[in-house]
Amino acid sequence: MSNLDSFVSHSHPPPECVATSSEITDRESVFVAHIFPASSPVRARAAQAHLKRVVHAKKPATHEMYAYRCMVLKKGRDGLGEDDFEVVEGSEDDREQWAGPRILKIMRSEAVMDAIVVVSRWYGGVMLGPIRFTHIEDCTREVCKAFRVRDEMNDCITALRAYDDSLAKLRTELEDLRKMNADEASSSPDVPEKATVRDCADEPPAKKRRLEPSQDYTALSRSADLVKARRLINARESAMKAVQKLIDKTKTGNAAPS
């Protein structure tokens, strides 16, 4: 099995663990949860196998309980229809009866999708009774919340990149309009030479900037600072509105009768 694990780990990148819960220790039993992205049951089980056979190889857990939820394409569908996808769920107790469905219940309540949660327990020699399910659920809830933050942050960064592209296009359009105005003015015999170039010195620097390189949001993504991400989105929306107003004003001036 170790040879197979070695082959797999070298043939494919290891599954990405999005979050690991705090350890819960109760009478020498230890509980900890991991959550991995999983777009299909096959990927979900691969992540669980990697955790068990590679990450925990030197210190195997007594139980590796898990549950997954994946939005998958229905057989024979092309993905273009509203009904082409379905939610596929699964769970495994790994000899800890009823543990898998408990994990799945928390995943549903936290609206986590395309993920697998694995809760590992190292048995400490003392039977805990029903409290063990509380520990399992608490670990699961912690990583599910972290996964949702990661998902929302990814959505924010996708929006920021789209806004950056749109803002760059708007600024290019504004620059082109101003250049066209300047060219037309310089070629007109009725306009004095001093008035051939539009003076933009009175405009805020942010409105005169040339195209900037693509923003790097790596640090923002790692920080998981959703408040900052939302603030940046609001700033981009305001900037786009401001530049659009300048474009409309410039076009109106071009259309005005001489």
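Second entry:
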Amino acid sequence: MVIFGVALLSICMLTGIFLGEMMGLSLGIEANVGGVGIAMLMLVLIVDYLKKRDKLSKAAQDGVGFWSAMYIPIVIAMSANQNVAGALDGGPLAIITGIAVVLISWMFVPILSKSKSQTSSENITVDNDIIGGKTTNVRNIK
């Protein structure tokens, strides 16, 4: 059911918005700084924590999964409310920051994919026994 998990989602959203507002105030900006991102990160971490300890029911997992998928349109709608033209009028810092973030992200892709492939290849064991079928040269990877 979709209603399950909404309390967890709303707690994360309200906490993230509050922390985003506090970050904005501490930086001297009258805006929410990363509140939705903080909420999304909290939701992912809390749901992972609860799943590992088997504290989240299947219905709650389905509800959280549905509402997590709804975050993408919410983020798009919230970003549409941002005054991008006003940010660019303030100076080139927005463009420089955006380019830097994209370049740094691109640099991390090979590093992360390399570490992932190394850990997954270490766990593969090869079993040469044939499990049914014809007697062909088939290797079963487990």
